[in-house]
Amino acid sequence: MSQTLPSPLFDPFAPGFTDDPYPQYAALRAAAPVYQDPLGFWLLTCYDDVSWLLRAGLSVEDRNVATSPLLQRREQLYGEEAARPRVAMLYRDPPDHTRLRRLVSKAFTPRAVQALAPRITGLVDSMLDAAEQTGRVDLVDALAFPLPFAVIAEMLGTPPADHERIRQLTGTVVRSLEPVVDPAVASAITAADSELRTIAADMIAWKRANPADDLLTALIDAEDDGDVLDDEELIAQTLLLYIAGHETTVNLIAGGTLALLRHPVQLALLRDDPALITNAVEELLRYDSPVQASRRITTEPVSISGVTIPAGAFVMASLGAANRDEGFWGPDAAELRLSRGNARQHVSFGGGPHHCLGASLARLEASIALAQLAARFPGLALDGQVAWNGRINLRGPAHLPVSLGG
Fold first, then answer.
1. What is residue 232's three-state secondary structure?
2. In the prediction, which pLDDT does 202 show?
3. 19-26 long-range CB contacts below 8 Å, 24 or more apart?
4. With contact defined as beta carbons under 8 Å apart, do 203 and 216 qualify?
5. Is 226's pLDDT higher than 90?
6. Most buried of 103, 266, 332, 362, CB within 10 angstroms?
7. CA 194 to CA 219: how far, in whole Å?
8. What pLDDT does residue 70 have?
9. Residues 348, 352, 357, 359: what is their CA dihedral angle, to the nearest 10 degrees?
10. CA separation for the pair 209, 205 (Å, rounded)
11. Average pLDDT, the chain
């Protein structure tokens, strides 16, 4: 039986939602944990349902979506661009996803990530040195953005580029992951995507002429049983790694810092026990997920918690809601507790075949950055108004003014 309700319980455009979506999530879990939005998509907010969906092997390809108001709106906004096949592995099903991920994974090993630790530490030290000179900084601009951006650029081995322009373009492109209702925004996304594709193609051409021991060269050379990435796939995977390699980690570092500052007792625990940092990062990921939702598409009817979802339906797994589900985490699910024993069971990196490929890199960057920040500045404090980025899915602070103390 459908749980479509006369008034939408889920309204991401409601005032204050992007600052704090969790009250809406709690209301959904209580009233309609398997919820059909008037636009036709379904939203899951309970941990067990979300966890099942992520691992169920459902589709991620738009071609499997039945006609729906959501799809019609996308076609109206994006026109011909909406019909262009998306070849990044994030949007592909097996066997294409399996092939692409296997090729990319060969150039993205845990050993390669761990080898970056000294370089990440050096970058954090230099950025905090610069911040200390002023005593008061916007932590997003001083650390949370430049650190993962520098790391993924170095990891890929990209040539010198206009990083500020790339930052602007990627910030626009990721808005495609949000509900878009303004044709001007859709047009800006399309233009930014086109410009980024040109930049990526130029980077790849440069790298073919200047190969090195880096990820982009490895992607160009990656082969599996005679299979290599074609030009379109190479551009798509390069942009996916470039964007995913910094956009989400920005939110983890900035959002994690904000959560610690708003919970001084927990921050004091971390300072007293630096070894707590590994579990602290897991709890911060759970407490405020940098990615709030992940989508799947049904190819046949599925039953979730007694509700039948038809074939061809968009189903959104609310990672942020699942990470605060009292039914799984207990009565203190909405509280930050760095010593939480099962914190690593969060779903912030997704799950199943599409589990985030860069999870280990994000964990490493956040661990080093937050540990250094906490240890080096005992007087660290908020020093101004926090401004959220206004995004529904890739949620995090856009501005985080802090005083580093004496």
1. helix
2. 92
3. 19/388, 21/292, 21/320, 21/392, 21/395, 22/320, 22/321, 22/324, 22/334, 25/318, 25/320, 25/321, 25/324, 26/321, 26/324, 26/334
4. yes
5. no
6. 362
7. 21
8. 67
9. 30
10. 7
11. 89
